[in-house]
Design goal:
Radius of gyration: 21 Å
Strand order of the largest sheet: 5-6-7-8-9-10
Largest sheet: 6 strands, parallel
Number of strands: 13
CATH topology of one domain: TIM Barrel
Number of helices: 20
Helix content: 40-55%
CATH architecture of one domain: Alpha-Beta Barrel
Strand content: 5-15%
CATH class of one domain: Alpha Beta
CATH superfamily of one domain: Enolase-like C-terminal domain
Bound molecules: magnesium ion
Distance between the termini: 49 Å
């Protein structure tokens, strides 16, 4: 038996706003950041659990404090007890009646729980000698169902239905695992599409994306209709008819505005419209989906929990479910969402980019292919090519695909020198670049 001896937190921020990487209509100057934690035990095996919440700068200290508020729930506990029943561990954190008041099951506290849960999964996978996707893909349907909290979702997915989905997929897991290792998992890229990039840079990066094997790119839209029409036209002319172009408004519009705006972009053959309006507006998404059909509506990176995903699916308001590794309460809740999507026959194309999100979320899509939906058809994981160098096991993306990680764990682990160098506000990245600090006081 081993004891959890430390839960250390870090406020890590990368001054990405200086290059306008990651800029979109709602987030013009993000400094990609992580509220990060490391769980240590006295097992003497060298394994640590790493997890994080992705934020875009200001407020990362609030998220870090929320993780610290969970420290006493796991410090001094037996690691084997927590890791041995991750369904119970999830409930221990999510159902804390006093912390629950801060949500319930949404926002800063819920995301902090996600980071802790993901750090525990990272530790569990390392201890079991497997990458997370493979660990989950080897669990029995019964074990997987025990990870999910069905409270609030049984009108859309019962434990029996979840078991049926997983049992149907079980016989062919081995065949799909082999396919995953030889074929990879499809990716699309957002690298060309940031709103702060010039037309020339957009066209150059779009060309490069195709040369690198991607079959879909994504452009940020929503700040200026005139600019959007021009940028989407440039992308279409550069790429020809066979490469898909998705657009992402990052919640910029009201419902009627979304319908009208996207109508102007429709002639350029739009693969999906992402986050057209508030992520809480289920009926608004339903109205947009109905008006814009057959253009698919995508959302999820800001969807707070499985309950909102359930309603989006029930209302026919989402055609592309975009799970995020660090928005909901970790691996467990994302398994619930994957099962909900499978039950409704809706495809899942995860949100990634950010910092560490690609590394983390690939495990969930790969698990979904092997053990849940059993398909990669028309599915792909977002890819953005920055900040991967700060991770111990950065993603392998080439030939337009993610390649299954073989390293142990959940992919969350950042290099210790990155944790130090980008530590906010005292790390060298911040003290050596006074101009980077200017952004902190602007809004
Ligand atoms: Mg997006």
């Amino acid at each position: 038996m081993s004891i959890i001896t430390a839960v250390d937190t870090f406020d890590v921020r990368f001054p990405t706003s200086q290059g306008l990487d990651g800029s979109d209509a709602m987030n013009p100057d993000p400094d990609y950041s992580a509220a990060y934690l490391i769980i240590r035990t006295n097992a003497g095996d060298g394994h640590e659990g790493h997890g994080f919440v992705f934020t875009i700068g200001r407020g990362n200290e609030v998220e870090t404090a929320a993780i610290e508020a969970l420290r006493l729930h796991i410090l001094g506990r037996e690691a084997e007890e927590l890791l041995g029943d991750m369904g119970a561990t999830w409930k221990l954190l999510v159902h804390d009646s006093q912390l629950r008041w801060l949500g319930p099951e949404k926002g800063v506290m819920h995301m902090a729980i996600g980071a802790v849960i993901n750090a525990l999964w990272d530790l569990k996978a390392k201890r079991e000698g497997l990458p997370l996707w493979d660990l989950l893909s080897r669990m029995s349907p019964e074990e997987l169902v025990s990870l999910v909290d069905f409270r609030y979702i049984t009108d859309a997915l019962t434990p029996e239905e979840a078991l049926d989905i997983l049992r149907r997929a079980a016989p062919d897991r081995g065949e799909r695992r082999a396919r995953l290792l030889t074929e990879g998992y499809p990716a699309y890229t957002t690298t060309p599409g940031w709103l702060g990039y010039s037309d020339e840079k957009l066209a150059r990066l779009a060309k490069e994306a195709v040369a690198e094997g991607f079959t879909q790119i994504k452009l940020k839209v929503g700040a200026s209709l005139e600019d959007d029409i021009r940028r989407v036209r440039i992308a279409r002319e550069t790429l020809g008819p066979d490469i898909k172009i998705a657009v992402d408004a990052n919640q910029r519009w009201d419902v009627a505005e979304a319908i009208e705006w996207v109508g102007h972009l429709a002639p350029y053959d739009i693969a999906w419209i992402e986050e057209p309006t508030s992520p809480d507006d289920i009926l608004g998404h339903a109205a947009i989906a109905k008006a814009l059909a057959p253009i698919p509506v995508a959302t999820g990176e800001h969807v707070q929990n499985r309950v909102v995903f359930k309603q989006l699916l029930q209302a026919g308001a989402v055609d592309v479910v975009q799970i995020d590794a660090a928005r909901v309460a970790g691996v467990n809740e994302n398994i619930a969402i994957l099962l909900l999507a499978a039950n409704y026959g809706v495809r899942v194309c995860p949100h990634a980019g950010g910092v560490g999100l690609c590394e983390a979320v690939q495990h969930l899509s790969m698990f979904d292919f092997v053990a849940v939906s059993g398909t990669k058809d028309n599915r792909m994981i977002e890819f953005v090519d920055h900040l991967h160098e700060h991770f111990v096991t950065p993603v392998h993306v080439h030939d337009g695909s993610y390649w299954p990680p073989s390293a142990l764990g959940a992919g969350n682990e950042m290099l210790s020198q990155a944790l130090t160098h980008y530590s906010f506000p005292d790390g060298a990245a911040w003290t050596a670049t006074p101009s980077a600090l200017v952004n902190l006081t602007s809004s």
